[in-house]
Specification:
158 residues, mainly alpha, two-stranded antiparallel ribbon, membrane, single chain, 7 helices, 2 strands
Length: 158
């Protein structure tokens, strides 16, 4: 199930990226075309993940540091979906940094990338989970920031 959840839910971060960029007021993002492009890219990344890593998967058990898990038995090439989602998140983070002076989304994505790319000499895979947590906290903080700065129409009764 985790492979199916990963294939269907992780690409939704592309829609989050589009929604975050939309808050900057960039015109083309606010029109239907921007949403359509985000949805198409999201679907393309989900389909790529399904084809590359989910459909027809053969699992084998693996024990690391005393913990049993199941992993894919074969190598499937570069993680296309992860690269696509990361590019969307990083692009949104850089735009938010430039337009709204909010750097934390970009920093969260960059730290996640560094944490995934560099071998860290600890006898645990939990370090990767720590970097994923940093990314999620930066996305949560970004959502809270965007809600805080959003201009809301005043209540007509006041």
């Amino acid at each position: 199930m985790r492979y199916w959840f990963h294939a269907f839910f992780t690409p939704l971060l592309i829609i989050f990226s589009w929604a975050a960029i939309r808050e900057t007021g960039i015109r083309w993002v606010n029109v239907r075309t921007g949403l359509n492009l985000a949805v198409i890219f999201t679907l393309a990344m989900a389909i790529a993940e399904l084809i590359q890593n989910t459909l027809g998967i053969k699992l084998e058990h693996s024990e690391k540091y005393g913990v049993l898990s199941y992993e894919s038995a074969g190598s499937h090439g570069p993680p296309i979906m992860i690269i696509g989602v990361t590019v969307a998140l990083l692009l949104a983070g850089v735009i938010l940094w430039k337009k709204l002076k909010w750097k934390w989304m970009a920093i969260g994505v960059i730290l996640m990338g560094i944490g995934s790319a560099l071998p860290i000499p600890l006898e645990s895979d939990a370090v990767t989970n720590g970097f994923e947590l940093i990314l999620l906290i930066s996305l949560w903080a970004t959502k809270a920031f965007l809600e805080r700065i959003q201009i809301r129409p005043q209540d007509e009764s006041t």
